[in-house]
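Example 423, ligand flavin-adenine dinucleotide.
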Amino acid sequence: MKTIIVGAGIAGLSAARHLKARGLEVLVVEASPFIGGRVRSAAVGDSLVGIGATWIHHPNGNPIAMLCDEFGLDRAKFDLSNLSAFQQLHDKTRLDEASSTLVRTIEDDFWEHFNPEGAQLGESAADLISCYFDALPHDIAHLRARALILNALETELCAPAELIGASNFVAQTQPYDGGDEIIAGGYSALVDCIATGVALRLSWPVARMSQTSSCVEVIGIDGTVETAAYVIVTVPLGVLKANTIRFEPTPPESIGFAIDKIGFGVFEKVVLQFKERWWTTQSTPNGMHFLSDTTFRYWLDISHLARCPTLVAHVAGPPAENLSSTPDMRVSDALTALHAHFDVVPPSTAAFATTWQADPWTRGGYSRLPPGVDGRLIDDLAQPFGRVVLAGEHTSRWRYGYVDGAMESGVRAAKQIIGLAAG
Ligand SMILES: Cc1cc2nc3c(=O)[nH]c(=O)nc-3n(C[C@H](O)[C@H](O)[C@H](O)COP(=O)(O)OP(=O)(O)OC[C@H]3O[C@@H](n4cnc5c(N)ncnc54)[C@H](O)[C@@H]3O)c2cc1C
């Protein structure tokens, strides 16, 4: 019994590993020349920098953390909440300590009172933010705190707050906890471990698949055919939305409905390296928010990961709509944003900008539930249709958007295939 897995990201490779460990024949086919999908590193100067997934969010009890331990990959803390201590305004001034502390206190109070469990299905993150702030004074400290919270939420969930359903926050606090960690050697080191010994056909984009009662034919855009008893499709939600792959017969209506309704945001990064770490005199904060309406308002300092002074702008949600089209223009715009916030910005020594949305095999960042969309639609996506089953982060009921959700979905799909084969 052979299984073809479409997509060599974490979901596809995890499915392959599970089936292979049970002695089953597997072939992973992949459109791009790389494995890893949205886990990818790029050479920037002399460093390898993660340009997709970088953090293990909520590592306690998280299967990705356990897998790292199994493969002997070290993990280290990276506190993503330690950003607001280093705010910059639009007028080249930094918040003084008293103002910073006040904003931080309001922010902490917001999160303490944040109760998405009590929210209606139709409510958005914007509604929850308004509900809290509308009852408070509209002074500068509250406006700053509101801007900061909005910036963090829209960046993390890669969508405008109006398009982020309150239910996302219920889902994403389960079932693990802890802060944020990085993997020594980056996520790519983990991908390499998972992929060991897996049969791969790279640079082979799938255009169509046709199933009969006894097998599935998978047809590449070059017209060549691979045949298997079962298929697991792990292409991103954006690729499913674009109908890049034609399914024969078409999947059930419930699957088409879920593909249409579940959201898929935009998330791009711009990496800038410098000769010196010129932007801070403080040693601890891990980044900065710009409290202005620039496209580049969320910056992380990953110098210790890159072993070189390095800033990464995360551009997601509404600011992503203003991004220029080419990587060179994105780099130049990011530098302009730095110039608008600091008196002196030295020239960068190396740079890189992602184009995940323009990538035909990704078409965006990751999935989210818009207001009014029930998370049970994700369960519909995970139902087999005939000999085919979908996997990928967008099919993980509680951890969509995360690497561990992708991994868990691959294992779930592999188990479903084993169940189908057993009759
Ligand atoms: C910028 C960015 C930052 C992120 N940061 C984090 C983070 O810090 N922590 C975290 O947990 N998550 C993060 N994520 C999300 C995380 O990367 C994803 O949830 C996860 O990697 C998805 O894995 P997957 O296997 O479901 O999909 P993918 O990794 O996208 O794999 C799908 C594969 O299918 C292939 N494919 C597509 N179309 C075809 C076709 N027609 N034929 C054959 N192959 C095809 C693609 O090339 C790809 O390799 C981030 C994502 C982005 C974009």
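Summary: The longest helix spans residues 403-421.
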